[in-house]
C-alpha cells in the first residue's frame, strides 16, 4: 500500500470516518469537543489517529457544546465540532446547541448512534427510551438544527456529510449528524474530497441585486452625507467584518455597534462611536444614531437585550437592513439578496473618502477611570480599570449578567474579539466557550483570552477548568464574587434565598 | 382576612402557584429542585414562602433533574419536582428528564415561560431561538414526557395541573408543565383542592381480570410447585413491592430479581435467591430460574444490560408477565389489566405457605469475602467488603459502570434501597440523584445514603456536592479512582487517550 492511499484526499477509498474528518480539516478545524460513549468510541479512534485533529475530552457534554460554540465564534469561517453519544450524551448538549442556533453559530453535532441494523430492529438497548423510539432524539434535535442527517447507507453518506457541513457554515447554524457504529468503518470513494466544499453564500440574482444597489445608492444620495452604519451580530457570524470595514473606510460614514456586534468594527477606529442600545444608549450616541437621515443596519438581530428592550427610535422609512440572505429597504424585502455578495459591490459604487461624510462628527468612545477609591469593588470602579488591562488581539469573554452588561461600555483595543451570549443568555456558558475560544485563539494567533464570570454562573460549568488544563490553554479568569445571582436580584427577589448560592 | 383564607385547601380562592404547590404537598413532596431564572422567579417566591416545601437551589439544571429523579425513586408513591426557566434552563435538563422517562420515574418538570401575551406576540426575547418559535422547546419536551400542558387560561389551569400530576404518578413517567409568568399570580377557586388527587391505577375490567386470574391460577396449578418469581424495575416504580412480597410469602415460591429490580424484594428474605441476568447469572441461579416450569415475571423491563444482553433462556410458553397496564400469559396480551389491582386478588387465590413450594430449594445469595490481600484494591477485593459495611435501611446508589456492575453481586440488607440507572446509563447521574435520594431518605426515615461513583463519572456533575452541603444531607461517597473511563476501556479503546481523564 502506498502512503497516498492513506490520505483520503489523494483519491481512491477511505472510511466514512476519515472522509468526515478530512472535510473538517479542509475547513481548518483543529479541535473536536465532546465526551466518549460506547456508540462513538469507534469514531474517536479515527480522531485519535489523525495528525491534524485533537480531541479535547471535555468533562461533560453541555460544556463541550459550549466549547464548540466558543471555538466557532473565534475561528470565523470555520466551524465548531462536537461529538457525543446516543441519548445520554447528545441530550446533555441540547441547551448548548440551541444557544448556537439562537446566536447563529456554526456547530456540527456528530452523534454516535447504534448500528443501522439495530436502528431497524430496535432492541431495548441501554441509552434508549425503552419503547423502541429510535428517532426521538432526532426529533428533538430538529428543533435546534438548521438541518439534520441520519446516515443509513454508505453510498449516500459522503453527499449527506457534504450537504450538512455546507449548510452549517453557510447558514451559521448548528447541524446534527447521526453516525451509526457500523458505517464509521465503511469504505467509500474519496474522490469528492478533491473538490473542497464551497461554503461561500450563493450568488445573488444579478437583476435583483442591481435593482437593490440602485435603490440603496439613491437613498444614500438623498440622505446626502447623513448616513450612519449600525453593525450587529450577523456581520460577525456571516463573516462580513472585512467587507463592512472596507465600506466604512471608503464612505467614512460614522459606525456604531449593537451590543451583539461589539468588535465587529475595531473599537479604536476613528469613525467608530460606540454601542447603540435604544433608550439605554449614552445620550450622545442615541442622538447621533436616531437623528441620522439614513441608517444602514448590517447583520441586525433585534432581540430585547440587544435593542434596549425594543426601544430603537428609528423609523423604517429611514432604514436599510443588510442580512445574510435578504435585504430590506424601508418596507420592501428582497429575499435572496445577501450582504456578503452585496457589500463589495455597494462599496464599489461609493465615492472614496467623501469629505462631506468625514465632516460628520462621531462621539469619541471612551470610558474615563473614576478616581474616587472605595473599600468595596463596585462595577463603576471595576470596568474602566479592566479596560486599561486589555491589549490588541485579546479575546474578551463576558458571562451573561453583570459581566456582559458591564463590559459593553468598555472600549476594546483594535483586533480584539468580544464574545458574549446576549440573545440566548445561558448562565455558565462562558466557562465552556472560553475553553473553545482559547483553543481557537491559539490556532489563529490571537493574544490572551480573558474571561469575566460571576460566582453564580461558574457553578454550572466549573469542571471545564479541568479541560483547560488538559488542553494546555491558559485563559485569564476574573471571577466576580458578588454572593449569588446578582443580575436576578435586580430583576426580582433582591433578598430571596433562591438568589443565594453556597460560597465556594 | 382570616388565616383560613391563606390555606388553599380551605377553599375559596388561591393563586395558580399556590394551587400547584398545594397539590404537591398533598402528594408528600417536601423539596423542589431547580435553578432560578427570570421567567420562574415569580413562582419561586411562592415556594420560598411555603412552610411545607424547600427549594434545593441546585448548581445546574441537569443535576437538578437527576436530583428530582433520585428523590422520586426513594420516595415511592410521591414524585420528583424540577423547576427551570424557559429555553436555557429546561433544555439543560433534557437528558435528566429523558432518563426518568426511560427508567419510569415520575418527575414533574415545571418551566417558567414568558407571559401568555408574549407567547402570542412572540417578540425576540432573550432565551428564545430568535425566530419566533415559542413552541420549539415544548416540541422537544414532548419526546420525553408522557404528557405536557401549556397553561394559557386560568379557568382551565387547575384541571390541567391535576391531569398532569395524576398522569405523572400513575404512569411513573415525566410530565412537562409550561407556567407563564402572568398566570402564576392569577386567582382561581381552590375548591378542587378539597378532593385529593387519585393517583392509584384505574380498576381492571372485572370480566377480563377474572379470566386472567383463572388462566394464571390454572398455569400455576399445572406447574405444580415449580414456579419462580422474577421481580424487576417496574415492581418498584409502580409501587407493588408490598403486593409482591405478600404474594411471595403466601406461596413460598422462590424469588429472584433482575438487576433493575434489586431490593424490590428484601435481599435477606429466605426465599430470595439473587440476581438473574441471563447467561451472565451465577450458574446456580441460571439453572434454577431457567428450569422452572413457570416463570412469573413482575414489572419486567427487558433491556440489554438488565437481561445479560437479551440472553433469557425461558420460553414464552412458560412465562407470565405482570405489568403496570397489561398482563401477558404466554403469547396472549391482556391490555388494561394492571398488576397493582391484580396481585392482591391473585394472592387471595393462592393457598397459604404451600409446603410443596417450600420444598423447592433456593440458592443462598451470599458473597464470601476473599482472604487474599493485595497492594492494589481490585473489584474482587472491594465489593464483598463494602457488602459488610451496609446496614438495614441504607440507600445504596451505584453509578453506571464498574460500580453498578460490581454491586449487583453484593447481597444488600433488608429494607435497603438500591438505586442505579441500568437502562438509561447516563454517567454522572448518581451525583445528582444521590442528593435527591438523600433528601427523600431523610424525609421518610431511611438510614444512610451511600454512593459509589468513579473518577470519570463524577467529573460530569461534581458541583452538586455543593448542594448537598447547602441542603444539609450527608451521604457517604466512595469515589473509585481507576484513572479514566474504565468501563469503556473494557468495551473499546483500552489504551486510547480518549478514555483518559485529568486526575483531579
Automatic annotation (TrEMBL), chains A, B:
Cofactor(s) it depends on: Mg(2+); thiamine diphosphate
Superkingdom of origin organism: Eukaryota
Subcellular location: Mitochondrion
Keyword Nuclease: no
Domain Thiamine pyrophosphate enzyme central: 213-330
One GO MF term attached to the UniProt entry: pyruvate decarboxylase activity
Keyword Manganese in record: no
Keywords of this entry: Decarboxylase, Lyase, Magnesium, Metal-binding, Mitochondrion, Pyruvate, Thiamine pyrophosphate
Family statement: Belongs to the TPP enzyme family.
Name recorded for this polypeptide: Pyruvate decarboxylase
Organism: Phanerochaete sordida
Amino acid at each position: 500500500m502506498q502512503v497516498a492511499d492513506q490520505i483520503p484526499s489523494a483519491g481512491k477509498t477511505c472510511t466514512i470516518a476519515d472522509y468526515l474528518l478530512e472535510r473538517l480539516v479542509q475547513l481548518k478545524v483543529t479541535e473536536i469537543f465532546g465526551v466518549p460513549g460506547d456508540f462513538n468510541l469507534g469514531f474517536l479512534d479515527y480522531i485519535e489517529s489523525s495528525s491534524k485533529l485533537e480531541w479535547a475530552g471535555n468533562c461533560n457534554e453541555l460544556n463541550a457544546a459550549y466549547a464548540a460554540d466558543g471555538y466557532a465564534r473565534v475561528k470565523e469561517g470555520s466551524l465548531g465540532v462536537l461529538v457525543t453519544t446516543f441519548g445520554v450524551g447528545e441530550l446533555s448538549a441540547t441547551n448548548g446547541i440551541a444557544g448556537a442556533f439562537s446566536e447563529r453559530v456554526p456547530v456540527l453535532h456528530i452523534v454516535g448512534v447504534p448500528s443501522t441494523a439495530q436502528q431497524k430492529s430496535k432492541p431495548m438497548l441501554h441509552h434508549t427510551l425503552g419503547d423502541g423510539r429510535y428517532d426521538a432524539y432526532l426529533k428533538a434535535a430538529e428543533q435546534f438544527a438548521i438541518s439534520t442527517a441520519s446516515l443509513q447507507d454508505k453510498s449516500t453518506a459522503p453527499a449527506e456529510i457534504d450537504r450538512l457541513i455546507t449548510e452549517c457554515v453557510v447558514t451559521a447554524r448548528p447541524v446534527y449528524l447521526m453516525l451509526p457504529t457500523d458505517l464509521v468503518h465503511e469504505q467509500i470513494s474519496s474522490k469528492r474530497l478533491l473538490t473542497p466544499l464551497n461554503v461561500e453564500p450563493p450568488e445573488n440574482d444579478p437583476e435583483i441585486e442591481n435593482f437593490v444597489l440602485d435603490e440603496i445608492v439613491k437613498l444614500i444620495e438623498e440622505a446626502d452625507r447623513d448616513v450612519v452604519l449600525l453593525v450587529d451580530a450577523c456581520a460577525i457570524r456571516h463573516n462580513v467584518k472585512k467587507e463592512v470595514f472596507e465600506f466604512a473606510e471608503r464612505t467614512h460614514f460614522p459606525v456604531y455597534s449593537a451590543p451583539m456586534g461589539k468588535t465587529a468594527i475595531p473599537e479604536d477606529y476613528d469613525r467608530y462611536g460606540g454601542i447603540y442600545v435604544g433608550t439605554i444608549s449614552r445620550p450622545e450616541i442615541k442622538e447621533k444614531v436616531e437623528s441620522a437621515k439614513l441608517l444602514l443596519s448590517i447583520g441586525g438581530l433585534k432581540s430585547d437585550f440587544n435593542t434596549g428592550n425594543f426601544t430603537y427610535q428609528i423609523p423604517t422609512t429611514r432604514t436599510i437592513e443588510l442580512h445574510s440572505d435578504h435585504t430590506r429597504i424601508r418596507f420592501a424585502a428582497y429575499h435572496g439578496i445577501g450582504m456578503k455578495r452585496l457589500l463589495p459591490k455597494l462599496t464599489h459604487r461609493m465615492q472614496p473618502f467623501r469629505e462631506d461624510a468625514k465632516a460628520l462628527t462621531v462621539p469619541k468612545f471612551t470610558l474615563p477611570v473614576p478616581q474616587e477609591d472605595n473599600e468595596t469593588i463596585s462595577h463603576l470602579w471595576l470596568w474602566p480599570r479592566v479596560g486599561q488591562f486589555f491589549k490588541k488581539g485579546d479575546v474578551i469573554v463576558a458571562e451573561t449578567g453583570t459581566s456582559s452588561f458591564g463590559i459593553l461600555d468598555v472600549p476594546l483595543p483594535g483586533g480584539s474579539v468580544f464574545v458574549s451570549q446576549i440573545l440566548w443568555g445561558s448562565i455558565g456558558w462562558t466557562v465552556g466557550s472560553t475553553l473553545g475560544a482559547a483553543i481557537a485563539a491559539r490556532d489563529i494567533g490571537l493574544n490572551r483570552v480573558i474571561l469575566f464570570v460571576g460566582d453564580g454562573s461558574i457553578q454550572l460549568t466549573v469542571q471545564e477548568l479541568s479541560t483547560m488544563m488538559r488542553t494546555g490553554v491558559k485563559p485569564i479568569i476574573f471571577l466576580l464574587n458578588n454572593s449569588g445571582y446578582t443580575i436576578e436580584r435586580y430583576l426580582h427577589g433582591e433578598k430571596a434565598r433562591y438568589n443565594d448560592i453556597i460560597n465556594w
